[in-house]
Design brief:
globular, five-stranded mixed β-barrel, alpha/beta, binds adenine
């Protein structure tokens, strides 16, 4: 299997690349694509940069230039519901572009001329990512949980559900409530997932996404995000991608 792995931040993808066997590199469209192997599977990993356009272009390259057979996105997200805390993990079942609004031409949230306001993920990939996340939390152990610190000492939870995506870093009650008004069942918010989901749907490409909660999309979100990025994002991304690849059939 050839798997495309995307992350928005260099820290996350560098850790994934570090875990792969000897990798070749290709520079295309302003990005470096690293090729390698793990558990008998080929991987093409790329740091997309932040935002929907960046993530969509990187996803198209993975599919068209590198011929990946599935796409997996890993990264951080802001938590939107009270039950979710920093360190918890969300595996996406559906994704919505919360900032898409071409009304009155099309219903708000609908991506014009696709008839879609919600993009799905591939159930088998979501299932393996969820299992990989649980195994990762077990394997990373106490040191990792201590690094998360702010999680009140409780073991992180793994949840499945809806992810809201938009070209905006959400860092305050008003914008957080705004996202929730539009996508009431969203568990978390980020800036790439639904764009990659749209590309994958258009190309008939299996797709999965996993996000660790880095912040509460509130007034301290920027500092919390930077802290999670520095301390745990790389370790999490590498471990969960490794577990995922190890779970794939040969
Ligand atoms: N990614 C991580 N935290 C986020 C936030 N609060 N808003 C948007 N994207 C994020």
């Amino acid at each position: 299997m050839r798997v495309g792995v995307l992350g928005a931040m260099p820290e996350e993808v560098a850790a994934v690349i570090g875990m792969l066997g000897p990798a070749g590199r290709t520079h295309a469209g302003g990005r470096d694509y690293a090729r390698g192997t793990h558990a008998g599977h080929e991987v093409v990993a790329v740091h997309s940069r932040i935002g929907k356009v960046a993530a969509a272009s990187a996803a198209v390259e993975l599919i068209v230039r590198f011929g990946v057979e599935q796409v997996v996105f890993t990264g951080l997200a802001g938590g939107l519901c009270r039950g979710l805390r920093v360190g918890d993990i969300v595996v996406g079942d559906g994704l919505v572009q919360h900032d898409m609004d071409a009304s009155p031409l099309f219903p708000a949230l609908e991506v014009p001329l696709t008839g879609c306001s919600r993009f799905g993920t591939t159930p088998a990939i979501a299932h393996r990512l969820e299992a990989g996340a649980r195994a990762t939390l077990g394997a990373l152990g106490e040191g990792f949980l201590r690094e998360l610190g702010v999680n009140g000492g409780r073991r992180p939870a793994v949840r499945r559900g809806v992810i809201a995506t938009g070209d905006r870093f959400i860092a305050g009650a008003e914008s957080r409530e705004g996202v929730l008004r539009l996508v009431p069942d969203a568990l978390c918010v980020e800036m790439e997932g639904a764009a990659v989901a749209q590309v994958c749907q258009e190309y008939g490409m299996p797709f999965g996404i996993i996000r660790m909660i880095s912040d509460g999309a509130d007034e301290t979100a920027a500092a919390d995000f930077a802290s999670a990025l520095g301390r745990v994002a790389g370790g999490f991304a590498a471990a969960v991608v490794a577990r995922y690849l190890e779970s794939l059939p040969a």
